[in-house]
């Protein structure tokens, strides 16, 4: 095991640690203001709804070359990836519309 492998493991650990802190610290801070938890819960539910719709419209078709080794892609995995991609596209479009709306609103005021 050389130093590159060690640094990769350290980087993975730091990413996991950062993700844990990014989730836990706002939750701990929001206990001071419980109404902010409602907003967070609504945002998580809205994200779940967007993913459910995207997952529902995605298909699970897998080409034979991807169903075999080394990919072993199943229709369920293909449907999940498609749903994730559609969710990403939808959130990107929502973000762009929000930015345009905000800028137009600021220009009018």
Mind explaining what this structure looks like?
The protein is mainly alpha-helical and 109 residues long. 82% of the residues lie in helices and 0% in strands. It is extended and about 55 Å long. The mean pLDDT is 91.
Counting structural domains, the number is: 2
Rg for CA atoms: 20 Å
The span between the termini is 61 Å
Portion of residues in beta strands equals under 5%
Structural class: mainly alpha
Instruction: Give the helix proportion (percent range).
Output: over 70%
What is the overall pLDDT average? 91
Q: What is the number of E strands?
A: 0
Number of helices: 4
Keywords: Membrane, Transmembrane, Transmembrane helix
Which key terms come to mind for this protein?
109 residues, mainly alpha, 4 helices, 0% strand, membrane, transmembrane, transmembrane helix
Topology:
Layout: H1 3-30, H2 35-57, H3 64-67, H4 75-108
Helix pairs in contact: 2-4
Summarize the structure.
With 109 residues, the protein is mainly α. It has helices spanning 3-30, 35-57, 64-67, 75-108. Keywords: Membrane, Transmembrane, Transmembrane helix.
């Amino acid at each position: 095991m050389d130093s590159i492998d060690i640094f990769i493991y350290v980087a993975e650990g730091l990413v996991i640690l950062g993700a844990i802190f990014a989730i836990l610290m706002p939750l701990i801070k929001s206990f001071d203001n419980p109404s902010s938890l409602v907003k967070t819960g609504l945002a998580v539910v809205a994200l779940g709804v967007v993913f459910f719709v995207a997952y529902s419209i995605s298909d699970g078709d897998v080409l034979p070359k991807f169903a075999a080794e080394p990919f072993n892609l199943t229709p369920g995995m293909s449907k999940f990836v498609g749903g994730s991609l559609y969710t990403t596209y939808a959130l990107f479009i929502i973000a762009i519309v929000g930015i345009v709306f905000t800028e137009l609103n600021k220009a009018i005021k």
